[in-house]
Design a protein that fits this description.
single chain; 6-stranded antiparallel β-sheet; alpha/beta; Elongation Factor Tu (Ef-tu), domain 3; about 30% helix; about 475 residues
Length: about 475
């Protein structure tokens, strides 16, 4: 933790609008620098279509922070960098993890309650439960808008008016949650893909529901034919490919699901080891008690009645009871490469920054990471310090680069590519220097897969080393 500034009582606060993952992380980082924060959260004064509680950092979709592998997965690298930066989101996520193979999944209620408690007890953070109906007023000279994908209409309209640019939008869907006791374990079995053991896991962290070819084809037919929610006129926007509804994936080709969320690879049916499943539906533990499991990759816009009928076609779920059915809500994000500078500040208004999904990053951890950066940038500016950008070689820098400039052509306007939400991935990192990839000891020749893994490991080692330097940490601290 960064030492608090003794002069904090004399420092004007930074205002953060939005108490989701990004806003909570931004507030935490600002306070850690010794700068007071006012965090404005409209819930429960005003609710949203997706949130169910008044907790800060409530998870409204999956309960997974995805891969925790910091050697060969870009998301895992971002996890590691955030831990190095004293991330509140990662600390609470680690504290409330539930088994999920190689992923870091959390008890959603325990996680949100922990974030809320830490924020509310911090002496430099004031939480105001109120809606901010427009852009922060001018006298909030340092402010961060982190209102996420469910930005209230009045604020969204004021953003459009201030930027002269329409906000873009995509759909983000919610996966159903099943009561564990209603899953038929004489049909299903526990196993992580390739028996992978992750944080807090055992290698048997998912419940798997097998399908033969006939069952799979019948299921795909039912998905395509199922009744779906109607779109309103204002919702005529594209899906984000990383979060497609299950029925939309089915419509894109009969084999799409079998090569996507229902792929059978790395799984062996414990009840019939000699029969390889044609397709598999996986369910992931959703709470610490293990009484709830969510259907992985099964975000949907099917109507509730259709969901129950169709999902009970899945072997092992024929008598399933649902704690929550799937849903669909609209996400909003701005054209960040045009509107924001490299420190996430609105080019047309000094001191006003944006963070989280509204900037066009996608994913819980990515949103929190951008909140972390925005908070550090705002605190540095408030304290009169130079702002040091994270190196492009880090996951922080790679994600920041995508948001603030990754989609601009040389002339910045004509022919500019469409800006789309993006998860952190290795494609955002700059190439390695020649000779950076070393052949593992004992390996005579590196084949394609070996070379790809070596490249990922080298990218990870470079990222974490450069992140430590950026944070002013000694290399030895990483191993502690």
């Amino acid at each position: 933790m960064i030492e608090q500034n003794d002069r904090s009582t004399a420092i004007r606060p930074v205002h953060v609008v939005g108490g989701g993952l990004a806003g909570s992380e931004a507030a935490w980082q600002i306070a850690a620098c010794g700068v007071p924060v006012v965090l404005h959260e409209m819930r429960p004064v005003r609710g949203t279509d997706a949130h169910k509680t008044a907790s800060l950092a409530e998870l409204v979709c999956s309960n997974s922070f995805r891969s925790d592998d910091a050697e060969t997965n870009a998301v895992g690298i971002l996890h590691a960098e955030m831990r190095l930066a004293n991330s509140l989101v990662m600390a609470c996520g680690d504290r409330h993890q539930v088994p999920a193979g190689g992923a870091l999944a959390v008890d959603r209620d325990g996680f949100a309650e922990a974030v809320t408690a830490e924020i509310e007890r911090h002496p430099l953070i004031t939480v105001l439960r109120e809606e901010v109906p427009g852009l922060p007023p001018e006298d909030w000279d340092q402010a961060i808008v982190a209102t996420g994908p469910l930005t209230a209409p009045a604020l969204a309209e004021s953003i459009r008016a201030a930027t002269g640019s329409d906000a873009l939008a995509f759909f983000d869907a919610i996966a159903p949650i099943v009561y564990t006791e209603t899953i038929d374990m004489s049909v299903c079995w526990h196993q992580s893909r390739y028996d992978k053991v992750g944080p807090g896991g055992t290698g048997k962290d998912y419940i798997n529901c097998p399908m033969n070819e006939a069952e799979y084809n019948a299921f795909v037919d039912a998905l395509i034919a199922g009744d779906k929610t109607e779109f309103k006129e204002w919702e005529g926007t594209p899906y984000f490919d990383g979060c497609l509804p299950i029925e939309v994936m089915a419509e894109r080709g009969r084999e799409t699901l079998r090569h996507g969320p229902m792929k059978p690879m790395g799984l062996t049916n414990a009840h019939k080891p000699q029969e390889k499943p044609y397709a598999v539906v996986q369910l992931r533990q959703d709470n610490a008690l293990g009484t709830l499991y969510n259907m992985v990759g099964f975000q949907t816009k099917l109507k509730y009645g259709s969901q129950k009928d169709i999902f009970r076609l899945i072997p092992g779920l024929d008598e399933a009871e649902f704690a929550r059915l799937g849903g669909l809500h609209r996400n909003t994000y701005i054209d960040s490469p045009v509107l924001l500078d490299r420190t996430l500040m609105l080019k047309s208004r000094p001191g006003l920054r944006f963070a989280g999904q509204i900037t066009g990053c996608e994913g819980y951890i990515e949103s929190a990471a951008i909140g972390l950066l925005a908070g550090r940038f705002a605190a540095a500016e408030r304290l009169g310090h130079d702002i040091a950008l994270p190196p492009a070689t880090t996951a922080f820098g790679a994600l920041l680069g995508h948001i603030t400039g990754g989609h601009l052509t040389a002339d910045d306007e004509p022919g500019r590519r469409s800006f789309q939400p993006m998860n952190i991935n290795f494609g955002l990192f700059p190439p390695l220097d020649p000779g950076a990839i070393r052949k593992p000891e004992g390996l005579q020749r590196m084949r394609g897969k070996d070379k790809a893994l070596a490249k990922k490991r080298a990218t990870s080692a470079r990222a974490l080393s450069d992140c430590r330097k950026w944070l002013g940490l000694a290399e030895a601290q990483a191993a502690e």
